[in-house]
Structure prediction request, 199 residues.
Amino acid sequence: MSIKLVGEDKIGVSPVIAVILMVAITVVLAGVVYVWIQSISSPDNPGLAYVSAKVEGVNGNDWDVLIQKVEGENLHLNTLSFIINSGQGYTMYEKSLSDVNPDPFYIQNTKVYPIAANISISVTSKQTSQPITNKDKINDYIGAIFTIMDTDNDSFLSPGDVIRIYNDFDNDGTPEIVHGDYFRLKSLSGSHQYLEKFL
Prediction:
């Protein structure tokens, strides 16, 4: 009767096969990491646009949000949501160009998109449901809380474009938007935020 001692068997994976397995695992892991990094850094990935802007006070109560830089994803104006939040964080006004809006018109060769907001405030000038004509001035359209001045007329958000935020919609001398409220620029779906600036 022969007795086999534990540890006596020397048969195992050949060193060549072990090396091949290690190389294969390394290549697969490297591929997975590469694909993951590309999915994060690719400008085609929605939500990776970067927007910088400068906020300037105009006409006493109003603000101009001057777009200074847009990097990454191209942001079509119809895909954007324009929001005013109170200092406490709740949404006061929100609108987008994809909502029912008057056609854009031109002032000094600049295409202007008025955005009539859903507000309950009684306005004394043009009501938000009335169309804007080429004879109208922006300041006459009190219901347009936001207007987009598309300086290069490309229908995309670009450096040099201006988002005008109007205030005192009922023309009673009391601003409805105060310092500490902030302007936000988001995707229409709300899944991505591109800009947030205090007014």
